[in-house]
Write a sequence for this structure.
């Protein structure tokens, strides 16, 4: 288990959204205000970590041929239980994160990591994978939220900061955000679903370009080293 | 077909093997269902109590005079009422009589309409002349940041909060429709339509009540 390598994978080289292209629906649907991104990110990170641990713990009793069906039963059941428990015992948390939880059942990152990682690895490594992939997902959500909120609505920190936010006596998720651009400038288009597609496409392109560059550089360095060794 | 492939094919089609897989999957479903039932049993009282508190708060929001109004327990629903509601595109789930100082002051109805992500449960208040006095959302799973704007009563393009535009509507306005006499929040047309269907259903039921 190599925490540093797994962290780099989750955040950059194997980022769930920008490289594996998982969880795109939720990424585009909810990234309209800072709080939504943070809430969904935290909820997914926690549930992904726990579901990775569960899948890893029972991986030896899951027959290979029906593993996908088993994953779905276990994940859907587990997420529903978390939802019910939150509703009953932590109503405050359920109120602020509750809207995201039903969306997680169908978030393919959970199923994707079960299939590609926790089904083949130990419990501790799977937990670390859940945390790292969750952080990678959260970071992308937050970047998208900041871009779309700023260019689309002209605000920053929607749901947390600004009038009606938690620092001004309001409820979590109610803040309007700090206005940066005056009302007539923002492009409303970016807050609509189509804006989600555009921003996500730009981010994926930028990520692929950066990864491609890094790979080229590494290859050139290896080549130069080889030639230096020859000479 | 080589002998090996045939062998593999035979192993895959082996009824015993298939039965084992089926049994394992079935067992997994049973275990998960059992655990879900257990969790449901433990959490149900708390969740019901919370829902009841939310219903009471919603009832107060949809009448003209929240402090002076009293609410009956849920009334029995007749077949005519449920038929009227489903004719308007939503399901009637509860009905409460509203009284002000003992006098009949209309009704509050809980209706469920379908939104973009699931059902939207809402409370609609009507006065004794079947005029809408308020609409509030009890439960929903609309997309955060899009449909949630409708649920949160945010203003439409012309500045009126989206749920407030229903106040004052009555059967005299005809069937309410998004784009006709109701404005949607841009990007959240489906959620806006859901709420509109709910109010139409509430008005259809209210027309049956005296």
């Amino acid at each position: 288990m190599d925490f540093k390598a797994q962290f780099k994978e989750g955040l950059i080289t194997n980022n769930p959204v920008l490289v594996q292209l998982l969880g795109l629906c939720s990424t585009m649907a909810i990234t309209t205000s800072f709080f939504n991104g943070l809430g969904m990110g935290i909820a997914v990170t926690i549930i992904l970590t726990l579901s990775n641990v569960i899948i890893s713990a029972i991986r030896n009793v899951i027959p290979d041929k029906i593993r996908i069906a088993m994953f779905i039963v276990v994940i859907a059941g587990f997420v529903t239980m978390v939802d019910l428990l939150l509703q009953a015992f932590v109503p405050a948390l359920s109120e602020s994160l509750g809207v995201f939880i039903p969306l997680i059942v169908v978030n393919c990152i959970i199923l994707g990591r079960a299939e590609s990682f926790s089904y083949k690895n130990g419990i501790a490594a799977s937990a670390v994978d859940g945390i790292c992939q969750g952080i990678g997902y959260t970071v992308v959500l937050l970047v998208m939220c900041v871009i779309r909120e700023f260019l689309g609505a002209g605000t920053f920190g929607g749901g947390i900061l600004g009038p009606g936010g938690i620092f001004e006596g309001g409820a979590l998720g109610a803040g309007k955000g700090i206005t940066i651009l005056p009302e007539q400038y923002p492009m409303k288009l970016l807050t609509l679903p189509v804006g989600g597609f555009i921003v996500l496409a730009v981010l994926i392109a930028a990520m692929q370009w950066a990864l491609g560059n890094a790979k080229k550089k590494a290859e050139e360095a290896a080549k130069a080293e080889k030639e230096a060794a020859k000479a | 077909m080589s002998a090996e492939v045939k062998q593999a094919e035979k192993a895959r089609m082996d009824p015993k093997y298939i039965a084992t897989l089926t049994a394992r999957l079935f067992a997994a479903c049973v275990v998960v269902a059992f655990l879900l039932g257990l969790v449901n049993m433990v959490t149900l009282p708390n969740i019901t109590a919370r829902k009841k508190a939310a219903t009471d708060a919603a009832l107060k929001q949809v009448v003209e005079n929240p402090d002076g109004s009293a609410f009956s327990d849920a009334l029995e629903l007749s077949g005519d009422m449920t038929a009227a509601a489903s004719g308007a595109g939503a399901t009637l789930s509860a009905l409460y009589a509203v009284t002000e100082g003992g006098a009949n002051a209309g009704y509050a109805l809980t209706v469920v309409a379908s939104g973009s992500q699931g059902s939207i449960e809402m409370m609609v208040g009507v006065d004794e002349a079947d005029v809408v006095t308020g609409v509030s959302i009890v439960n929903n799973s609309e997309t955060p940041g899009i449909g949630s704007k409708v649920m949160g009563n945010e203003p439409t393009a012309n500045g009126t909060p989206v749920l407030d535009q229903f106040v004052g509507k009555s059967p005299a306005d005809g069937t309410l429709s998004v784009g006709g006499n109701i404005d949607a929040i841009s990007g959240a047309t489906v959620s806006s339509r859901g709420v509109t269907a709910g109010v139409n259903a509430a008005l259809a039921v209210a027309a049956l009540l005296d």
